[in-house]
Amino acid sequence: MVSKQRLFSNLECSGINNKLIRNRKGSALRTSILLFISIKTESKKLLYCGTIFLCVALLGFMSCTVPVPDGVGNPRPTITPNVDIVPSIRAREIPPILGVRYIKTLGRTGQGAGEFLMPMGLVIDAYGQLYVADAGNNRVQVIDTNGNFVSEFGSYGWREGEFDYPNDVALSLDTIYVADTGNNRVQYCNLINRIFYPITPISEDLQFESPEGVSIGRNGEVYVVDTFNHRWVQFSRNLVPGLAMGRFGSGREQFWNPTDLVVNPHGNVYVVDTGNHRIVSYDFSGNPTRSWGEEGRELGQFREPKRLAIDTWSYLYVTDSGNRRIQVFTSEGRAVIEFTVKTLLNPCGIAVSQKGQVFVSDTNAGDIKVFQVIFKKNSTSDTKEAE
């Protein structure tokens, strides 16, 4: 028989051991619960961070520039309103011109949509639309490259937004400039609100007299060919007057009724000196550099040249109105080629697309002739033959 004292002692020890066991089980349970809570918390943090990362990645992907379709399957480039698009000035191998062929004629004589009376200067926008100074109809017409009417600006008059024999048009992104020749002024407007304002010279010395040409420089400068004052004037992109070059005559820095100018990617200015039958060039600082041409019928000679355009390779295209042809020159003035078509009566305005299509306004015929320049393909360079 086990004594009562020993029995009670054993029972007491057994109770202590059971208590320890219960304590150990509780501790393990608490540890497991804390571990579970910790794992759950970390999982939430990882899920939260992962969600943020995924959202940032999606926003970055969606913020990439996406071309806006024009409704016919061709993407239109997105244009940032405050940034000018200028051609590259990096050195490239210039492809030779093999020839130029006539393609088609756009428009006809008349006063309706897509019709013209004495079309003069013209320009192509970023979407391939053509803006034409329809002088005889006292308006600017916009057509596509197939001759379909898009819109028009202006009517006859002297108030803002009205024109009297507009001779030329230029574009700087979303702003259009019109040489309002009969009203002795240049008007401009934003293409969104279409509210016209005149460029107002700040002094009597810069008042225009029958300006026939307007062009845009590489940094958004505005150039006006002040025809009857025999000079050209440069304005900053904020329309502050800068250079004013030329006076009447036939000398080195003189003009006789100049009608147009263009600016290449290096800032060099090329002026059509119509009365002197020549082209005159200046550097970006306004210093005269060279001139070429004289009256005649041979290649490199002119009879009342009217306007000029520059392509992506810096070739210069000049409408030689008296000889009923277009001549092409290098930027140094070397004659390259001439082209025409029998139905071309009086070539005036000219514009060249990025694909090498040449649009020529025929003042007497009341239409626009279209030509295609054919370049020599060179697989070792980044040149590309026009389609």
The structural class is alpha+beta
Number of strands: 28
What is the distance, rounded to the nearest whole angstrom, between the alpha carbons of the first and last residues? 118 Å
Unreliably modeled segments: 1-25, 58-84, 379-387
Largest sheet: 4 strands, antiparallel
Helix-strand topology string: HEEEEEEEEEEEEEEEEEEEEEEEEEEEE
Q: Give the overall shape.
A: globular
Approximately how much helix is present in the residues? 10-25%
Strands in their spatial order, largest beta sheet: 3-28-27-26
Kindly estimate the percentage of residues that lie in beta strands according to DSSP.
35-45%
What is the residue-mean pLDDT, rounded to a whole number?
83
State the oligomer. single chain
Number of helical runs? Answer: 1
Radius of gyration: 36 Å
Describe the secondary structure blueprint for this structure:
Elements: H1 4-62, E1 68-69, E2 75-76, E3 97-106, E4 108-109, E5 115-116, E6 119-124, E7 130-134, E8 139-143, E9 149-153, E10 166-172, E11 175-180, E12 185-190, E13 196-198, E14 213-216, E15 222-226, E16 231-235, E17 241-245, E18 260-263, E19 269-273, E20 278-282, E21 288-292, E22 305-310, E23 316-320, E24 325-329, E25 335-339, E26 347-352, E27 357-362, E28 367-375
Parallel strand pairs: 4-5
Antiparallel strand pairs: 1-2, 3-28, 6-7, 7-8, 8-9, 10-11, 11-12, 12-13, 14-15, 15-16, 16-17, 18-19, 19-20, 20-21, 22-23, 23-24, 24-25, 26-27, 27-28
